[in-house]
Design goal:
The chain has 4 helices and 2 strands, in the order βαβααα. By secondary structure, the chain is an alpha+beta fold. The chain has a two-stranded parallel sheet. The model has no long low-confidence stretch (mean pLDDT about 90).
Length: about 100
């Protein structure tokens, strides 16, 4: 009897730009979710192929979603600026207003 390859319905990859070998890891993971949903997230930190692919969406088949610092209705600009200042240089990266 022929064994079926592993399949997943939902594949979630977080902070993809920070993965040590992202292209190789995607190549090994994506076939398992070929008939499912793939959700990849991360900041522009690293500016690897993830960021480029995100910027080209949906022309390349991906759906582009940006979740900014003001996406949570409990957070206003004052709250975001306080959070940003507590993180110094990383503040705008971790709490972005725009993509």
């Amino acid at each position: 009897m022929r064994e079926r390859p592993a399949e997943v319905d939902l594949l979630i990859g977080d902070e993809r730009p920070m993965w040590p070998h992202p292209d190789e890891q995607e190549a090994s993971l994506f076939p398992a979710a070929a008939h499912g949903t793939i959700v990849m997230g991360g900041t522009a930190n690293g500016h690897d192929t993830f960021y480029d692919r995100w910027m080209e969406s949906p022309a390349n088949g991906w759906r582009q979603v940006f979740i900014g610092a003001l996406s949570d209705p409990r957070h206003d600009r004052e709250w975001v600026y306080r959070q940003r200042s507590s993180l110094g240089e990383l503040g705008p990266q971790e709490y972005p207003f725009t993509a």
